[in-house]
Specification:
The structure is a homodimer. Chain A is mainly α. The first copy, chain A, has a single domain, classed as Methane Monooxygenase Hydroxylase, Chain G, domain 1, CATH 1.20.58.220. Chain A contains 6 helices and no strands. Chain A is elongated. The C terminus of chain A is likely disordered. At the A-B interface, helix 2, helix 3, helix 5 and helix 6 of A face helix 2, helix 3, helix 5 and helix 6 of B. Chains A, B: One of its GO terms (biological process) is intracellular phosphate ion homeostasis. Chains A, B: Keywords: Cytoplasm, Phosphate transport, Transport. Chains A, B: Its main location: cytoplasm. Chains A, B: It is found in: Cytoplasm.
Chain lengths: 246, 246
């Protein structure tokens, strides 16, 4: 490798390290947002919910600066095809994280409304467990990215089935509460959206893990995963329909 | 400009034209998907719904080939900062279109379930009108992109308020149907998701229009637009909460 080439390569590596540090920081903020939003719902803590809503601005700002930095690196370093693939993956991952931040913020907003209503059964602890699962998946997906650990990434993808299952169970529970007493409908609609938000966060983590598999193996994610639940043909519920378009 | 530079510039322009043609084709398919999904719901046409579900694969394939082509162009042509901005915008727009395709497919899936239930009031025609509005917005946003017409793009952004308003009205209507008769709950949940999907499609079109404003003026979209509806503080409804995280 000529001296000039080497110089360019290491400059790219330095830039990439900077971008990756930003992704990890963003990931940390999103992990906190997930857990705090679920906790604020369970403990009916309006102040904590308000904090989550305020903190989302920092996540958005990180995504913006990360995208600008990535565009700068592409323009300046004219990376090779495989380096370019890394930069584009990081941009996609930051979009996933940014959306997860929005979803946490949305949960916190709904918490602000729900604390004014009667609690519905034991649904808040179930939602917190579901959020905890997604947070752990995110932690592992980011570790898998930094370590380029394909097995760990595949494990994360697999675990999203549990999250889907938890969502399906909760969906049915909300329906029964609504049928039991129409006065529960409004609260249940909010709780259902919260469950759906967490389930969508699981999909975003899965997408991050799929990027890792792609980067380490060059293999594109398989055809859409089999749904953990088969209720699309169940005319009454069909909750897994919520999986599209997230 | 040296002859070599000129040669590179026109090669980039040719590449960009190819990418733009793909975006327009993708836009055409998404426009059709939006209208067909809404029509299949109104006319309870299961075959048309099935067609929308099948056609989504073509939209996904276009996004993939567009992203590959964009990455190839960036790597090969090492575009200037402003040309790079165009390519990155097109990639973002294709992500918006792909998601709109998914949302149409989701509407078509729910149609397959809803035809087995009793129709709920006059909600299907309302949903079709809402979908029609979003389809026209998309058409204009794509025209605005090709013509670099900032005024038209701003107009599209403005019209998203009407879509939000239509959604809010429908949300309240579904709630009253559910409160009136709990047997309506399941159908109303599906119809509500359909309304929400259309509302989210409006947000994606807005995001495309904002890209156009950014490309023509270099101006980033303003702070999050004012919500057309202020019910966040309304403990009973708060439908505009659904705006985050889409």
């Amino acid at each position: 490798m000529s001296e000039l080439k080497q110089h360019i390569a290491s400059a790219f590596d330095r830039d990439l390290e900077g971008i990756q540090a930003q992704i990890m920081k963003m990931g940390g903020l999103v992990e906190a947002a997930i857990m705090q939003s679920a906790k604020s719902l369970e403990t009916r803590d309006e102040e904590l919910a308000e904090l989550v809503r305020r903190n989302d601005a920092a996540i958005d700002a990180l995504e913006e600066s990360l995208n600008e930095e990535a565009a700068r690196v592409i323009a300046l370093r004219a990376p090779t095809a495989s380096d370019l693939r890394i930069v584009l993956s990081v941009m996609r991952m930051s979009a996933n994280l940014e959306r997860m931040g929005d979803l946490s913020k949305n949960i916190a907003k709904r918490t602000g409304v729900l604390v004014q209503m009667q609690a519905i059964g034991g649904t808040a602890p179930s939602l917190r467990r579901m959020a905890r699962e997604v947070e752990l998946m995110l932690k592992d997906a980011l570790d898998a990215y930094i370590q380029r650990d394909e097995a760990l990434a595949e494990d994360v993808i697999e675990r999203d089935r549990d999250v889907d299952q938890m969502y399906n169970t909760l969906f049915r529970e909300f329906l029964t509460f609504m049928l039991e007493d129409p006065r529960n409908i409004t609260a249940c609609m909010h709780l259902h959206f919260i469950a759906k938000n967490i389930e969508r966060m699981g999909d975003h983590v899965t997408s991050i893990a799929e990027q890792v598999v792609f980067l380490t193996t060059g293999r594109k994610p398989d055809e859409p995963r089999e749904k953990a639940d088969r209720t699309s043909t169940d005319a009454d519920l069909a909750p897994d329909m919520d999986k599209d378009g997230d």
